[in-house]
Amino acid sequence: MARSTTCELSGPKPSPGPWANLSEMCGIFGIEGAPDAANLTYLGLYAEQHRGQESAGIVSWDGGHLHAERGMGKVAEIFDADKLAGLPGDRAIGHTRYSTAGSSVIFNAQPIVVMTSMGPLGIVHNGNLVSAMATRRELEAAGSIFQTTSDSEVFLHLMATHPHEEIVESLLQVLGEVRGAYSLLLISRQGLIAARDPYGFRPLILGDLDGQPCFASESCAFDLLEARPLREVDRGEVVLARGDGIESYRLPPVSRAARCVFEHVYFARPDSEVFSDSVAQSRLGMGARLAREAPVEADLVVPVPDSGLYGALGFSRASGTPLELGLIRNHYIGRTFIEPQQSIRHFGVKVKLNPVRELIAGKRIVLVDDSIVRGTTSRKIVSMVREAGASEVHIRITSPPTEFSCIYGIDTPTRGELIASDHALEEIRRFIRADSLAYLSLEGLLGCVSGRPETYCTACWTGEYPVPGEGHGETQAELFPLRLEAGRQR
Ligand code: AMP
């Protein structure tokens, strides 16, 4: 684990990242040396709300203490002016959570804060550690008492057992012991530390806000703050931000990168750049490619909002078939809604999506969506669109069939629940009752993002897991059984 150059933000970069050309679901943000650090972090999280709506939290350092505030729900529901005023200091990190490991309950909300012999530490983590359960069992056997059921807490316990005068050295040692996906931010009395696993599964970028270093999962957070994006935190890089400068450290290299291409397919915001590529551009490309791979005679292309929007636009442009916004999404759905006793057909989907009859009636429709997971949403949408008068409904999906569960941080159900895990294309088509169904090929998908295909993780389509789980191919739920206590949330 070599230490490299120390540099000012405005000076030479510790290593030339691909950012210059330029995002589990969890969003993280942090800033060092800014007087209103918590407020800026709040805004950064606000921009990254799409990465997790279950809970959010911020922890700040005021030179003497860590101050933390966490809650269930969306960022704007949790924080108000009084709560932000209770987070003083010029160093802060924050998190929006979408649980993939650990139950959806307040004690799993991040940041996780602990007291150690190195002083107080707070952590936010995007990704999943596949080695977390084994490590946790060992630590518990040795007497550790965990506060959460989240895999992220493992980092802190391991750090507490490897104290070091320089806190970054403790983290470097721990990162050499864990396996899996992590983009993380650690707040301590000695600075803010950012780290990305050697495979680079999850995104993490470094920016500059008025000369101060800041970090975000996605560039849309920097856009809101008018921060200047500098570069990606490299895979296997650990960055210590202290005052207005940064120091860069390297973890031992691994043979390949494994960037999650599903960030481009579904997860990231289209106005972000992820892994050096514009998400909007890559989705337009996926739609265009799909139009060439699986053309269909139709009157209208209709996106399934919001994740299907850019793919549908690309499909429409490439095929010459006009696009209409024939499905409308209700953006104001809270965490829960009260379902009436009287049964309403397709209620779960209807409350989110509604067809525009005037546009759809009598038309042959191509519905474009980013993915089919269980197949239940597509089935309901197809029947809603038929009830709205469509004469034909064709489904086009801008990614290959999801056959395997993600163990690196995207929330996918157990393998048995994935419709493509044990059904052929024609069976899926019949289940969702579409007139035709086609998916984008893996080759086609990887042709829409830059870099060599083998630098991406494609495990959800191929079952080739770059870092094996504790028992290769286990699902999130099998890896993290504790999560099931409070039920599954999506
Ligand atoms: P399903 O009914 O299970 O097939 O769900 C398909 C829908 O879920 C698609 O519209 C996708 O945009 C969306 N989707 C895909 N992956 C995820 C995920 N990890 N979390 C939430 N929604 C997702």
- Rounded to the nearest angstrom, the radius of gyration is 23 Å
Oligomeric category: single chain
Q: How many domains make up the coordinates? A: 2
Largest beta sheet: strand ordering: 1-14-13-9-8-7-6
Work out the helix count.
Answer: 17
Proportion of β residues?
A: 15-25%
How would you characterize the largest beta sheet? 7 strands, antiparallel
What's the β-strand tally?
Answer: 24
> What's the CATH class label of the largest domain?
Alpha Beta
Q: What is the overall pLDDT average?
A: 89
* Terminal Cα span: 38 Å
Q: What's the CATH architecture name of the largest domain? A: 4-Layer Sandwich
Question: At the fourth CATH level, what is the homologous superfamily of the largest domain?
Answer: Aminohydrolase, N-terminal nucleophile (Ntn) domain
Report on the architecture of this protein:
The strands form six sheets. A seven-stranded antiparallel sheet has the order 1-14-13-9-8-7-6, with helices on one face. It has a seven-stranded antiparallel sheet with strand order 4-3-5-2-11-10-12. The protein has a four-stranded parallel sheet with strand order 18-21-22-23, sandwiched between helices. It starts with a strand and ends in an 11-residue tail after the last helix. Residues 1-23 and 471-490 have low confidence and may be disordered. α14 (425-432) links the parallel β22 (392-397) and β23 (436-439). The protein folds into two domains: 26-258 and 472-487, Aminohydrolase, N-terminal nucleophile (Ntn) domain (Glutamine Phosphoribosylpyrophosphate, subunit 1, domain 1, 4-Layer Sandwich); 267-331 and 347-462, 3-Layer(aba) Sandwich (Rossmann fold), CATH 3.40.50. Helix content is 26%, strand content 24%. It is an alpha+beta fold and 490 residues long. Adenosine monophosphate is lined by residues 266, 304, 307, 369-378, 410-412, 490.
